[in-house]
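JOB MANIFEST
job_type = single_chain_structure
chain_count = 1
residues = 565
[input]
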Amino acid sequence: MRSGSTPSAFCAFSFVLFLHFLSSARASGITFQGEPITFLGERKALGSDRVIGAGKRGGGEQLDARRAEWRRCGSFEAHEDTVGEPGSLALLNPPLLDPARDRSFARHTLLNRLPAVASRLIGDGIDSASAERLRHLAAEVPWQVPLLEPLPLVERSAESRLGLDPAFCARVDAEWKRWTQERAAFKDWAMALPLISLEIYFYRRVLDCTGYFGASDAAEAAAGGSVLVDPFEKMKVEALDAALASEALTQTLEHHLSQVRALPAASSLSGFWSKDVVQQGAFYSSLASSTVPDHFLRLASNLQAALKGSLWGNRGDLALAPQDKGNTQEACRINKGPSAQGVDPDLLVDDSEKVFEHLLEAGRVSRGRGRVDVVLDNSGIELLSDLVLADVLLTSGLVASVRLHAKGEPLFISDAMPKDVTSHISALNASPNALNKEFASRIERLLEEGSLEVCSHQFWTAPRLFWEMPLSLARDLANASLVIVKGDANYRRLVGDRQWDVTTPLSQVVTPWFPAPLLALRTMKAEIAVGLRSEQVEAAAARDADWWTSGKYGSIQFVPIHDAS
């Protein structure tokens, strides 16, 4: 609940909304007939075909599957119109994260964290040719300029086993050509800001070094073993194994599955929103002695627990300390799970109750046909927590569909790709833990029904800030009842990688350009934050000198934007 609110106040809100729904239905003369409508509109836009878990494949089949994922990836033209930057940017002009600042997060990232990515891959036993190229890449940081343009995909697709659509490859190549040419005159890497875009560039160069997009010579082309092979797969597997064995996941699934088992299928809000009198009758019958406001409170509690699980799962970010192999275990220990109750000093902003209220109102307007889009961050414990959140949203009937936006190529070591969703479901099924198997079957059913989808788009791995989003993608996101943006890197792109005054409202940064109601779930790993109170900053700094970057503190920030036109 929000500070100052009470269960009785929330019951009052729910009951008022319930009465408003009934009065609207009477006033519009709605009749109760037909089956509930499954919301499938816009599903095929931007390559958003769903991805369903597959069994074990041979090498050729694996490559075919990886190609198929890429062919479903949406794309954009490099010079396509964008949503445009916020008006507050010119007014306030907050500084960009700057690697020139001594002892700053930005300087540490450029000089230590990025080269450490190459060192970790070499240390994990990558092939000798890739290792040599990675050493050269690490040596470029921070002085070797001009920045080299990533290897063109069009040529590699024709000369190797990449086998991707030439038009798609040309769009990706054009974007990187634009970005590097704009920085051609810079004297060192530290000038190639924003830093978040420079980091994305470095990871793309890592993929070139490892042959992800095709071989560098004839011998490698003949072997073809690294094409579309995630160079960070070993680290992801370690993190997933740690997650499956963690107490945090067990507690999360115990809580989640006990809640969904206790909810009769007919108690889904899809019955409440339905025009069908039989389904509406089944909904009210399923409540037994409970009232509608009581049922809303229960659903709100489940959603809040899932949102917080999804938030704290974001603490497990392998890119935060690439050389620390213990980070895979830490990713699971620091997830607080659903048992955290009361005031949490680590949670600096908690708008989770507002999210339920918003989805309830959006459900009334759309009659339960809404969609939530989730811009994913990390695989491992975080992705598993995100799947729990998707299950809560769909099982409750708050929305009819959930779309998970994954990365189309490896980024930031642990960022989730469509194939990671598949591998996580397979790992849950292969686990001896009955809870894991039960949860896997629920997610598989949602994927098969089409209510849960996994998609990817070139923009999520492009070197752009979010206000440089192409209009084609923005128009698609505008169809969502809510867009959930996960993680620190996405948050940095959302606020322009700039150090706004921490008391600046998030709404002032994302209005009017963000295309849909927004929820940002983020644990803090960079010297950037908005929407805080001065006393919160002082208290956090008193408890932890590294509060900006430790990943300990988090925020759940909601902005009810609707129309960016």
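[summary]
Residues 7-11+235-264+290-559 form a domain with the Rossmann fold fold (CATH 3.40.50.10880).
The first helix runs from residue 7 to 28.
exit_status = 0
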